[in-house]
Specification:
Oligomer: single chain
Number of strands: 7
Largest sheet: 7 strands, mixed
Number of helices: 8
Number of domains: 1
CATH architecture: 3-Layer(aba) Sandwich
Radius of gyration: 17 Å
CATH class: Alpha Beta
Strand order of the largest sheet: 3-2-1-4-5-7-6
CATH topology: Rossmann fold
Order of helices and strands: HHEEHEEHEHHHEEH
Structural class: alpha/beta
Strand content: 15-25%
Length: about 220
Amino acid sequence: MSNGRVFADIAGSYDRINRILSLGQDQAWRMRAVSHLPAGRLLDLGAGTGAANEIFSRFDVVALDPAPEMMARNGARHRVVAVGEALPFAPESFDAVFSAYVVRNLDSLESTLDEISRILRPGGRAGIVDLGRPATPLKARAHRLGTAVVLPAVGMLAGARAEYSYLHHSLDKLAAPEELYAATPFEVIDLWRMGPLGFVYGVVLEKTSPAAGAMMDAT
């Protein structure tokens, strides 16, 4: 998560711009993933300024982000400045992990998923919401042309052209979610597309117990 510096300078306007770009749907997209998570201790991975805090009422939340500027604006009771690739928590110390609009900014998704698996208790779940290109080539091409124009323009208005140009390019950084989460330490419980052209996705991953894994290997 070394790209925490990318958005540090726009911490004050980051959530407002995201709400505008999502046509006011960003919180609804988060809530759909959160609804799949078990109550208990939750890590908000890449928590930013705390946009999701209002939907965490049934959780004991630890907010984590690599950017101190974001954490300074986050109202969560427990806040940690750290990266997803090296989570500073004991094994099996969380019931759930939530992460929104962070995956594309990771240095290593594989290392981060390994870390999430390490800190989750057996049966714990991770809910991830992120952006990518639409599933079909035609829609993906149209979306790429649109973000090439819209995102730099939004960046100019926000005084952060470089940051939002980065966002445009980051949408092509990773494989489609249907492929991305097919081989991980988790079982994919659900995966869905949202937003115009389906450029937003949500996925729920569950950490299976060692006993369940042994039974699967034996069959």
